[in-house]
Write a structure and sequence with these properties.
- This protein is mainly α.
- The chain is built from 6 helices and 3 strands.
- The chain has a 3-stranded antiparallel sheet with strand order 1-3-2, with helices on one face.
- The longest helix has about 40 residues, at about 150-190.
Length: about 200
């Protein structure tokens, strides 16, 4: 996954695209933050949630904005890390094992990127859960319309819907705590909070 993601980044850089957009394919938010650091070394800075993401998506797209000195950054990284696209060491990362383990000198930058990503991702939970609950409600109306709205089926469907609503509320509470935690990390580091997404 990492190799394909890095090659897509380099391809977009070679074509001078203004934005690179991708999902988190690393199965870890910390590794995705490390990838965001690597992307910056090739000329693309993390820029928040992408408008490509469907509303309420549990796996949204994230955007990376091309920097003015992107060609110079990419050339430097290509010169010093020529094997990176083929599984070799990456800029700022430890060689061997997992390729997305930050070196001590860049760990703080990666931690701030992780906090920024978590703030952005935490904002998606409310809409994502509401969408799922509405879809579930609509799905339950189909069998009810065929069997009739008698008390027993209504109670069963109501109980199922309330169970998932409780799960969503629990997830919302977790997302809010996560948002508060990582917002505090950014504020303590003197980094402004990212703007709220427009949709």
């Amino acid at each position: 996954m990492l190799k394909a993601q890095l090659r897509a980044l380099l391809r977009d850089g070679a074509q001078s695209r203004e934005r690179y957009e991708t999902r988190n394919l690393q199965r870890s938010w910390r590794r995705f933050a490390a990838f965001a650091y690597v992307a910056e070394q090739y000329g693309y800075r993390y820029d928040g949630l992408s408008p490509l993401s469907p509303s309420g998506s549990p796996n949204p797209y994230f955007a990376f904005r091309r920097l003015p000195d992107a060609p110079e950054r990419a050339a430097w990284s290509a010169q010093h890390y020529p094997a990176a696209p083929n599984g070799g060491p990456l800029p700022g990362m430890r060689p061997g094992g997992s390729r997305l383990r930050p070196l001590p000198e860049v760990r703080h930058e990666v931690d701030l990127l992780h906090a920024r990503i978590m703030v952005d991702y935490s904002r998606t939970h409310r809409r994502r859960g509401l969408t799922a609950l509405l879809v579930l409600l609509a799905a339950m109306l189909i069998p009810l319309s065929q069997t009739g709205f008698s008390p027993q089926p209504l109670l069963v469907c109501g109980a199922v819907w309330l169970f998932f609503a409780a799960l969503w509320l629990t997830g919302l509470a977790v997302a809010r705590r996560r948002y508060a935690k990582y917002s505090r990390v950014l504020r303590d580091a003197g980094v402004g909070l990212p703007p709220s997404p427009s949709r």
